[in-house]
Amino acid sequence: MIFPILQRKRLYEEVAEALMEAICSGVYRVGDKLPSETELAKRFRVSRLVVREAIRYLELRGLIEVRQGAKGGAFVSELTPRVVQENMRDLLLLGNISVSQLAEVRTHVEPEVSRLAAVRATKEDLEKLEESIVLAETGEPGIEYVKNNVRFHRLLGRASHNPFYSVIMDCIMDLTENFVLTIKPVKEVIHDRTSHKAIYRAILEKEPERAAELTLKHIQDITQQMRKLESIFLQLINKKVS
Predict the structure, then answer these.
(1) Considering 71, 160, 212, 240, which has the largest number of Cβ atoms within 10 A of its Cβ?
(2) Domain ends where: 78, 104, 128?
(3) 3-class SS at 150?
(4) Is the pLDDT of residue 5 over 70?
(5) Cross-strand pairs, 65
(6) What's the domain range around 210?
(7) What is the spatial distance between Cα 61 and Cα 72, in angstroms, rounded to a whole number?
(8) Which residue spans within 70-147 are E strands per DSSP?
(9) pLDDT band at 42; cut points 50, 70, 90
């Protein structure tokens, strides 16, 4: 791979960006060892100190793991939820994750979570779900509005009373929250304010199949809006790059 000659002042950031793109585009895969500091310094035409700072930067972001010893070096780390969250914008730009991929996971997991919640939710669960709906309905568009809507789905995970689903829902909603806050204009509303209330009503009335159906429809509706925003977001970025 031929790397570009760098000209910006903070060279280590440019080196890190180029390496990040190589990792996210599959040039270097999980477990692969990056070239040595000496080799990278030659390719980028920078000092080893600059390369070392770039490696440290990528390590802090969770993209690589630095191992010591004779067989040590910088190795590409596995893509974890934390890495995805912290590098959401970069992964979006490089096309490594998409709204469709996120929706694929949600449509398989969340209807079942809502179905279980309709069977197992306690009085305390129902009170928290209702509270989250009120906060979302009365809130103004913005970061807190997004967080309140996401909280409803997190609470569904807890109301399923399956610790695995609770953890999975937190992971999914961490990604969803970061995704939405990355691609959505702050004051734009893409969330139907009535859908959570309908799901809550089905859970309150202990109708598991209706809760699952409403949840699936809700995910499908919001996915359409997110795909539109994703397309606009990437178009704007491409214009800036060109």
Answers:
(1) 160
(2) 78
(3) helix
(4) no
(5) 75
(6) 88-241
(7) 19
(8) 73-76
(9) very high
